[in-house]
Amino acid sequence: MTGAEALVSTLADHGVTACFANPGTSEMHLVTALDHEPRIHSSLCLFEGVATGAADGHARVTGNPAMTLLHLGAGFLNGGANIHNAKRAWTPMINVIGDHAVPHLRYDAPLTSNILGLAGPNSVWIKSANQAGEAGNLAAEAWEASFSPVPGPVSLLLPADTAWTEGGKPGKARTRPSLRAPDAGRIAAAAKAVRGAMKPVILINGTALTPAGLAHAARLKASGIRVLTDTFFPRMARGAGLFAPDRMQYFAEGAMADLEGTDLMLVAGTQVPVAFFAYPGKPSVLVPAGCTPLVIGGPETDSAAILGALADALGARASADPAPLDLPGLPTGALNAATIGASIARHMPEGTFVSDDGVSNGLPAFLMTGRARPHEWMMLTGGAIGQGLPLALGAAIAARGRSKVLCLSGDGAAMYTNQALWSMAREGVDVVNVIFVNHSYRILNIELARTGAGNPGRVADDLLGLGRPEINWVKLSEAQGVPAVSAATAEDFDAALARAFTEPGPHLIAAHVPAR
Questions:
Q1: For the chain, first and last CA: distance in Å?
Q2: Are 214 and 376 in contact, with CB atoms under 8 Å apart?
Q3: Is 170 domain-assigned?
Q4: What CATH number is associated with residue 381?
Q5: Mean pLDDT of 236-246
Q6: What's the pTM?
């Protein structure tokens, strides 16, 4: 057994079932090891950012880490944005990074880099298997580390000579760490604080956004606590029959106005909220004056259990049944984010996974689907756009044969990782891609005004606009094997979406919406 075979078989022994790969010369023995491992489904991605985003999506659906296969430090850097997003989503992920043979490193070949230094900041664990005999055990350790103490991406370097050298052996079996249980002292303190508060809120994320967690959240709402989610979350169960929490507003001034008068902010499964960016004269920490923040469990905890324990401590009973299914009628007229949202609510099948990278056009679709058929909504947590298509790819492979996947992406965001379309076609996965085509980085036009950077001139318009030349999304999609249509009216979009959801395989709808 080679070092590469020990690494791959050990990950398979621990339940890893998917590898998203963009290999190079240093990874050839890992490629052949994957060829001999039927328990892992390997997918070629034409760009490393697709591979890492797909691994994130796969893990969000299954709850288990997927493996990526990256080529040296340069390959890691190409995939770095979506590794950053995965870290912010607390997603377990195992990045296997090929490296030069250890004796070759001293010659400083053109692709040599300090991979430990490059990958370390976005890895919750990182080591290099410099000998074949340790590759298996380090693979097992990496798998375990991806879950604890806070789940996230790990990086395991495999030098080429370790990969090809015999002497590898399977790693010792590890036990999956559990999320931390509620702390009785914190629960008691939180219950006491709630009883003394006039306008308490609780900010939730993590397992609190599962159906079981939302049922406990509904109990807290019925007992007088306002329930908020983070602005962006990894995954939330939504739709008819489920409690729908409020959502923290994105812009700082809107969030602070919404929280005005709040005197207690409990936090479960996340952290005290902060603004995405600093703005002149606006706050960074989104806690109003006179409000006491109280963290009763961070992302390392089972927040659903925390909500249940707090509801019990308060004597909160089950709340009234959530709102029933309520589907909108056929939207007509101009195509915009709201009419798109109405069509999605009408046609989205039960159990759909939604990958939301819609940027400025994503919110109306989110609001319109609150009482649609039950589904799961996955969001861009780290702010690095270009996650939507890869996340949908990984989710669709994980949910193959049982659920549709819907990807919502801005045209600027989708251009970061449009190579994911090719992998969708190759895999034949059931993904409906909706691209909001407005020929603009619209969110940046909004932010230009908010930051006080002045009135845009020709250069600013060029740096924020995508319309010169216009991107033909139908041709771009068809060139990569994904059938595509354009829609410019609400009726056209509704008909195209209905067809796409009923047909197998990937589809793309270029939805032409206003730029401003």
A1: 60
A2: no
A3: no
A4: 3.40.50.970
A5: 97
A6: 0.96
